[in-house]
Amino acid sequence: MDRKKELKQQYKETKIEAGIYQIKNTKNGKVFIGSTRNLKTLNGKRFELNMGSNTNKELQREWKEFGDTAFEFEVLEILKKKETGYFDEKKELEKLEEKWLEKVKPYGERGYNREKAK
C-alpha cells in the first residue's frame, strides 16, 4: 500500500474522542473551560483565536493583547463512552463540562466563561 493510502486508512481508524479542555492565560491565570465532541478540533480553536473570530470577546481581546504564546491548551478529561446500550454523547459531555465548571469556577476574575442563569 502506498504511503498516502496508508495515512488515509490510519486517519479513518483513529478514534474520535470527545472531552473537556482548558485554555489558560499564563500571564494572569484566567481560564476558559470548554467541551468538544472531537478533541482534534483544538487546533481549530487556536486558529479561530489567531484569526480574531472567536465568539468569546474577552478571551479574544486578551489573546490579541498578550499574544498566542501566553496561552496553553490542555485536555482535562476524555469522555468515557459506554460500550453497550444507549449512550447520549452530547448529554454526557454537557454533564462532564458542568462538573469541570463547578470544580474550576472560571468566572469573573478567574476566567472567561459566563455563569449560566439558573
TrEMBL record:
Gene3D superfamilies: GIY-YIG endonuclease. Pfam families: GIY-YIG. InterPro entries: GIY-YIG_endonuc, GIY-YIG_endonuc_sf. Residues 18-113 form the GIY-YIG domain. This is LuxR family transcriptional regulator. It comes from Pseudobacillus wudalianchiensis.
